């Protein structure tokens, strides 16, 4: 009887530790991937990434934690900034993307992403207004309109 036990939650470090253990035992990358999928489920890690980690451990790396990288952390679209942008727009509907970006110290592109994609505002007569109709509402509206047009003689 084969035991199937897919764990629902796991960390990257845990999976890398399993890869390192199996690699140290001499198991191939493909077999390691099959074991990972059996235990953690199909979305755990690609075969290519498992092989890459095996190669990394072969090159002498010991730790399974991420190595700190240079660069700025991704903080622009954090919930705090989204809330601040929403407050700024509610206080001044004529504020520009440039002013929002300057005030929060984020890029113009990130400010635009927050306003348009996350908060779903759009400009109407130089004022920010929330989008009222979702795509589902628009489809329903179109269907009703077509029904009314068909009902005409």
Automatic annotation (TrEMBL):
Any single Pfam family the record assigns to this protein: HTH_48
Top-level taxon of the source organism: Eukaryota
Chain ranges of the Mos1 transposase HTH domain: 12-60
UniProt cross-references to InterPro entries, sorted A to Z: Mos1_HTH, Transposase-MT_Hybrid
Protein name as catalogued: Histone-lysine N-methyltransferase SETMAR
Protein source organism: Trichonephila inaurata madagascariensis
Source lineage: Eukaryota, Metazoa, Ecdysozoa, Arthropoda, Chelicerata
